[in-house]
Amino acid sequence: MAEIKLDRLLQDLRRQLSDVRFRHVEGVVQTARDLADRFGVCPSKAEVAAWLHDFAREWSKDRLLRYVKEHAISLPDEWLTVPLLLHGPVAAHIGKQTYQIEDEEILDAVRYHTTGRPNMTDLDLVLFVADAIEPNRSYPGVEAVRAALTDGLANAARASLDNTITYLIATGRPLGLLAVAARNSLLERGV
Ligand SMILES: Nc1ncnc2c1ncn2[C@@H]1O[C@H](COP(=O)(O)OP(=O)(O)O)[C@@H](O)[C@H]1O
């Protein structure tokens, strides 16, 4: 297997992300490593996923949609209803094509980092929760998500999904259905 081009990924990220977003990514990397250590997940996989996850976060909707079309990335229609959410699958595709990140567990964690998905793996949960609680995050409800972590990663993910879904409904925004499926799946697990 070819070696992951992490140095190049970091250089490219610095060039294309705003300073604020780059600091967010650094916070996610540190938090993902800490959570991975704490919950028995491979820290280096968590770190690679964290560096990659927001690669396409500052792309426009049109650019995301164009990328998906041009690279024939096949996704269920529900992804297309909220184009912003495509930044996860697009980052995963770029990670594989350009930086030799071929581990499907890492790529899935990146793909689903904003919405979650049914039957999330521990690596999925580490990235999802790290993204929600890294130290630079300060949105209403973040403390509840941090507090839920004392009952485990899945509980923190559930708290974050509750918060996001409630916020999207309260502000009249479209809701990507995978987040609802992810929450239902956590409830089925007894979280
Ligand atoms: N399931 C969803 N459906 C629609 N929008 C969502 C969903 N989940 C998150 N969002 C929105 O997507 C944006 C990015 O989410 P965020 O958690 O900040 O992830 P990222 O780290 O990728 O920027 C936010 O504006 C958030 O409200």
Automatic annotation (TrEMBL):
A matching Pfam family: HD
Key words, A-Z: Hydrolase, Iron, Metal-binding, Nucleotide-binding
Reaction(s) catalysed (UniProt annotation): P(1),P(4)-bis(5'-adenosyl) tetraphosphate + H2O = 2 ADP + 2 H(+)
**Gene3D superfamilies in UniProt:** Hypothetical protein af1432 (1.10.3210.10)
The record's annotation in InterPro entries points to: Diverse_Catalytic_Enzymes (IPR051094), HD/PDEase_dom (IPR003607), HD_domain (IPR006674), YqeK (IPR005249)
Q: What is its EC number?
A: 3.6.1.41
Domain of life, per UniProt, equals Bacteria
- The molecule here is called bis(5'-nucleosyl)-tetraphosphatase (symmetrical)
Q: What is the lineage of its organism?
A: Bacteria, Bacillati, Bacillota, Bacilli, Bacillales
Encoded by which gene? yqeK
